[in-house]
Write the structure tokens for this entry.
Amino acid sequence: MTTLPQPPDILSPEFAADPYPAYRILREHYPLFHDKGTDSYLLSRYEDVARAFREPVFTTDNYEWQLEPAHGGRTLPQMSGREHAVRRSLVAPAFRGRELREKFLPVIERNARELIDAFRGDADADLVGQFATRFPINVIVDMLGLDRADHDRFHGWYASVVGFLSNLAQDPETAAAGRRAGEELAAYLRPILAERRAAPGDDLLSGLCTTEVEGTRMNDQDITSFVSLLLAAGGETTDKALAALFRNLLAHPDQFAAVRADRSLIPAAFAETLRYTPPVQMIMRQPAAEVTLSGGTVPAGATVTCLIGSANRDERRYARPAAFDIFRTDLTTATAFSAAADHVAFALGRHFCVGALLARTEIEVGANQLLDAFPAMGFAEDAAPADEGVFTRGPARLRVRLGPGEGAARTAGAAGTA
Ligand code: HEM
């Protein structure tokens, strides 16, 4: 006779160390489980998580307490219906297509190069501390046309805002620091907004001040909240994705060699990293009415926690879900960065990540430049670093041996010794 395993505690140290065995237990035995610690219903199967992202009955009203205090106002994830559609089309063009390619690609390339230049020639580096945590924030600050000398201040605000959002245990000091950071950021931005309104430039902040959709423009409060959202939504996530991509590849030397030799594999490697080790592990929703899912019925008004990290490893959806395989045929790279994705790392439906293509561009540029600069890169420590974090998750550091640089590797290759 088999006994039912204990339901996992998602606030426990064991879960933080490695949530994947717990996710498996949830999918198998508790596909709908009320978690006391977070007072929410955990959804762990792909089918249920995808429904929660797609079906409008699952509102995002939970962001009123989960996001609004840190951003000092309502932001896109919290909105629905026409308000959401109009606000989203005010900001979306900057993150895709021509604007992304022509205006922001050079900004992304320059920021990657500058960060790499700081450790080019060193024997080793921490790819998280020296590259991944800095790169996306520096890019956003430059896209907005803000003072590059303030990169460090933005970094501090970003860390506090992200602390607020990840505060599953509701620690009061972390919450207060997050609110304070939001206020400081807004105070910093207000005089700059007045300048941009008077004399708009070519930057994203000026665009946010002047763009109008169906008679709607963003006021100062809308913009300061949106910038705060961008720092959190675009920083933490891309940071963890880049670090996880390199950790996953370095831990699978054959796949690393394949990507190094054929850079067109980078998007597939990134898509598989998003499936295998998604930077955002969970997202909440609040059903407006009672809903029946594969494991039971959720009452109206309850909070549901969509376990992205679990859905992306659902054996009902993927073959060998616990294997990192950039060549897998059940994940489509062509749609992986659109709302038609067949993983849930960017959510799905109307709130699908507005920055997915920006993230893809940042990862492609960052990975290409790192591979060019350090073709002989390898782990500097014996074991591959594990991921950390429960709400968002990724390697806290990634010490790599940089090996001989670009020039040296080419010479060695030419001499037939590579
Ligand atoms: C690998 C990197 C990224 C991951 C894994 C990621 C993940 C997500 C997820 C899961 C959501 C859905 C939230 C929800 O439905 O409640 C989301 C939404 C969003 N993301 Fe991303 N994101 C990434 C990069 C970015 C970047 C680079 C930006 C912009 C700078 C960005 C901006 C946003 C915004 C503004 C939303 C809200 C969209 C809406 O509610 O309509 N993200 N992201």
